[in-house]
């Protein structure tokens, strides 16, 4: 299998705009609107967020973002792999890349919010394989019956 290329993305290309639109549409299709915390392009274009895209044979196949929420704490945002490429290791490569970057930046902890329904089980399992554990809300999140919160201490 060809290598997955992960590159920092400026969020200006039409491919990434289309991928994020599909991601948001999917989130709103499977999660009540008040419980969707996925970010659109404008919300991702802030200094505290770094965004990466994943490419395979010249095709955009996934993305992930790291938000610095202060105090050595980072949040995983916008993790997505295109449906046709799920199970090919793209999500695993993106999460590993983000963890490495968080460590380089001196972060001590990473957290994330994902859904609780069956749709989100593969994501939960992926994060568990990296040592993330279920926690409660963090940062600006409050309790949400549709949210599943996970955290990992970085060594």
Descriptive overview:
The chain has 155 residues and is of the alpha+beta class. It has a domain at 5-110: Gcn5-related N-acetyltransferase (GNAT) (Aminopeptidase), CATH 3.40.630.30. 29% of the residues lie in helices and 32% in strands. It is built from four helices and seven strands, in the order E-H-H-E-E-E-H-E-H-E-E. The protein has helices at 14-30, 41-44, 90-104, 121-129; strands at 5-8, 49-56, 59-70, 73-81, 109-115, 133-135, 147-153. A seven-stranded mixed beta sheet has the order 1-2-3-4-5-7-6, with helices on both faces. The mean pLDDT is 94. InterPro entries: Acyl_CoA_acyltransferase, Bact_Acetyltransf, GNAT_dom. One of its GO terms (molecular function) is acyltransferase activity, transferring groups other than amino-acyl groups. Residues 4-155 form the N-acetyltransferase domain.
């Amino acid at each position: 299998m060809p290598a997955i290329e992960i590159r920092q993305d400026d969020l200006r290309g039409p491919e990434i705009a289309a991928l994020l639109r599909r991601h948001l549409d999917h989130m709103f299709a499977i999660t009540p609107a008040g419980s969707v915390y996925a970010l659109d392009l404008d919300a991702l274009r802030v200094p505290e967020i770094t965004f990466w895209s994943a490419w395979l044979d010249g095709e955009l196949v996934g993305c992930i973002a790291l938000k610095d929420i202060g105090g050595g704490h980072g949040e995983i945002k916008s993790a997505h792999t295109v449906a046709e490429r799920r199970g090919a290791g793209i999500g695993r490569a993106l999460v590993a890349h983000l963890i490495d970057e968080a460590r380089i930046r001196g972060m001590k902890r990473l957290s994330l919010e994902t859904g609780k329904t069956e749709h989100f089980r593969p994501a939960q399992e992926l994060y568990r394989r990296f040592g993330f554990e279920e926690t409660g809300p963090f940062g600006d999140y409050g309790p949400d019956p549709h949210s599943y919160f996970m955290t990992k201490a970085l060594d």
